[in-house]
Amino acid sequence: MAAGEVVSRKPLGKKFGVTDFINPKTCGEKSVSEVIKELTDGGADYCFECIGLASLMQEAFLSSRKGWGKTVILGVEMHGSQLSLNPYEFLRGRSVIGTLFGGIKPKSDIPLLAKKYLDNELSLDEFISHELSFQEINKAFELHQEGKSLRCIIWMDC
To answer: Which residues form a coiled coil (predicted)?
Structure first.
């Protein structure tokens, strides 16, 4: 894909199982968690926060279903902000768990994942939206910050 080309995330998301998309800019006066609770008739069973902002971690938690909703924190809080959650919500059955690198055990899991990729059992190529030379590394960061890429491969020998 060309460096300036915009990546359409919906078709790729659908391919990997995403069923619904919510743009916070189109939620009006409602919070994202309110929209998700309406869309799912009470909240999602599993919520994942991958960005690294305490405010989004809180929204993910509030989007989970009372009684059994689980929120998984994947993002590392970028600004050192504290996560504020009402303890009463835990008593109502919601839970939060964190994971670093998806909980893999590098020594055993990375070779296994590499083998699955090489044996075409694990599809990763669809996540690569751009391939750029090392001289274009700043362009890769720009594309990422503008939301125009999924993953960029930086070729060191170009």
So the answer is: none
